[in-house]
Structure formats: structure tokens, C-alpha cells
Amino acid sequence: MNSVLMQHTSQSLRPETLKEATSNMDRLTQLQDALDQMARLFSISVNYLSQPHVQDPAEFKKVQHELVTDICRKAKQVEILIDNLPGATRTEEEQLEFIGQLEKELQEANENYRKAAQTA
């Protein structure tokens, strides 16, 4: 590996940076999964509740309550995941500044990669 690329890689891809990036992606994946599950719960609930039922009204009421409980529980999980996303406590200006820093790092990494590819 080219020394310029190795130097940049060692600076910007430190273990703590990689761990943070992986952790952030894990949080986003968890949020996406939770939202997918919540959408499925809504779909299942609407489908179930819109069908005619011949079961005991008390049993139907019990199932309705279970559906509501499941949706509320999932909504709370989504809320917790959103509250724990990185940058949730940053102002819009701080977030834009952080995005700018990431874009600059990406441009530098791309340039270093191009240089390394040309010399290889």
C-alpha cells in the first residue's frame, strides 16, 4: 500500500473512529428495522381489523388490545432509537459543520486513493 494512503488511512480510520462509525450504522440499521417492523404491525393490524370476525367479541377485544400494545411498544422503541442517534443533541449548525468535515475527509481520501492508484 502506498505510504500516502497508509498515512491517511491510519489518521482517519483510527479504531475509535471505525468503532463509532460502526456503532452509528448499527443504530441506523436498528432504527430502520424497527420502522419496518412497525409498518408490518400497522399492516397486519389494519388487515386483521378490517376482516369480518365470527369469534367471541371478548376474544376480538383481547386481540385488539394486544395489537395496540404491540404498536405502542414498537413506537416507544423507535422513539428511544431516534433519541440515541448521534448528533441528536447537536444544533443544525453543528450538524452542518460536521457534515462539511466529513465531506472534506472524503475528498481527501478520494484524492489520496487516486494518487496511490496512479503510482501503483
From TrEMBL:
Residues 92-119 form a coiled coil. Its main location: nucleus. It holds the Pfam family Med21. SUPFAM superfamilies: Mediator hinge subcomplex-like. Keywords: Activator, Coiled coil, Nucleus, Transcription, Transcription regulation. It is found in: Nucleus. One of its GO terms (biological process) is regulation of transcription by RNA polymerase II. GO terms for cellular component: mediator complex. GO terms for molecular function: transcription coregulator activity. InterPro entries: Med7/Med21-like, Mediator_Med21. PANTHER family: MEDIATOR OF RNA POLYMERASE II TRANSCRIPTION SUBUNIT 21, RNA POLYMERASE II HOLOENZYME COMPONENT SRB7. Component of the Mediator complex, a coactivator involved in the regulated transcription of nearly all RNA polymerase II-dependent genes. Mediator functions as a bridge to convey information from gene-specific regulatory proteins to the basal RNA polymerase II transcription machinery. Mediator is recruited to promoters by direct interactions with regulatory proteins and serves as a scaffold for the assembly of a functional preinitiation complex with RNA polymerase II and the general transcription factors. Component of the Mediator complex. This is Mediator of RNA polymerase II transcription subunit 21. It comes from Paraglomus brasilianum. The lineage of its organism: Eukaryota, Fungi, Fungi incertae sedis, Mucoromycota, Glomeromycotina.
